[in-house]
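General statements about sequence and structure are easier to judge against a single worked case. For one protein, we set the task of working out the structure tokens from the amino acid sequence alone. The sequence in question and its structure tokens are set out directly beneath this paragraph.
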Amino acid sequence: MKKQILIEEFPHLMHEYEALSMEIIEQRAGEFYEQMDTRRSIRTFSDRSVSQGVIEKIILTASSAPSGAHKQPWTFCAVQNPAIKSAIRQAAEKEEYESYQNRMTDEWLTDLKPLGTDWQKPFLEIAPWLIVMFSQTTAPDKSKHYYVQESCGIAAGFLITAIHQAGLVTLTHTPSPMNFLKKILNRPDNERPYLLLPVGYPAQETYVPDIQRKTLEDVAVFL
């Protein structure tokens, strides 16, 4: 049994930590970077099925993320029902068409050209699963949440990492506005759509933009 003490009258457990050699730490860091560096945003999906058990583990991994006061202010809706996916696609494409035609600036549209994206989103029906992440402005009992956007952002990163680690692919999709997701999925008043991720396998012939990530020197400063 783990050693337990009381701090401010709340139980705390002894944290179990295995100290690794620097050699192993460097090896793990390098291997994980190499794995994550193969991650790409995918827009052409296969309809090959993925078990619900895999999606459950991915969501549990995302929900292990740190959050303000450990409130875990998120809900993940996992959708595989074809009729619901179709409704989401229709609503998303309606907003995306309006964005591409009237909302986006010329500069924004120019920046999107190398990605080869447009208002049509067939992956919303083809991918076997859609995971829709909602942020919770308050708890269901109306108690306060803290750092909601920051907490959900971290959990979203865990979610994307878990999908890639499992051997699946995804795409961060944020049609704006996203309120239609709340209506279609019948979510309560305390929840707001945060992120939409199609999850599955890539189509047999899938191409991704020939673009490069920034170098370490571009993104980090060591003092």
About this structure: The radius of gyration is 20 Å.
